[in-house]
Amino acid sequence: MNYQAIGTIRTPYTEVTGAPYQSAEPEEQDDRLFYVELNDEYAEGLYRLDSFSYLYLLYHIDRLKKPCNLQIRPAWTGDRITVGLFASRSPARPNSIGLSVVRLYAVEGNRIYTSSLDVFNGTPLLDIKPYIRDLDTKNDANYGWIDDLPDRDHLMLHIKGVPHDY
Ligand SMILES: C[S@@+](CC[C@H](N)C(=O)[O-])C[C@H]1O[C@@H](n2cnc3c(N)ncnc32)[C@H](O)[C@@H]1O
Ligand 1 pocket: which of 14, 34, 56, 119 to mutate (most atoms <8 Å of CB)? Predict the structure, then answer.
């Protein structure tokens, strides 16, 4: 396998500022801070993408410093819980592929403006796929082991990087 980036993700986040653990709720974001710049040679492939309200973005988590361990303690749980790597969304994986679902705000030329992302500025984009209602929405999805945490709703605010007072 030999994947090449097809574009670049632009965000306000750097290795110094850090980034949220996951993308925040779309309505809370400024719609011009986060966008994807697709390489010119792929721009034709954006035809009718703007008919979708949500997208999957797949990207290469290119600046990892953490080792890939098969059991981890997610930081947002306060290091309380041990889970298997594949039962987590940890960025330190055998293949450094990240996945985010984002709201699509606008396509202008080869730029795709989106809701917030949980990646550093300059993260290489691997692919874009439309998020399709009914195909991708699973109404019976649960929280997995996160359901066992007594303060689940509070911790979900941490995962999503939603500011809160407590
Ligand atoms: C928990 S991961 C989740 C990534 C993706 N949403 C997923 O579920 O696959 C998000 C974290 O990855 C780290 N990160 C983001 N972009 C990165 C990059 N380009 N290189 C290294 N680490 C990155 C940041 O610390 C961020 O908080």
Answer: 119
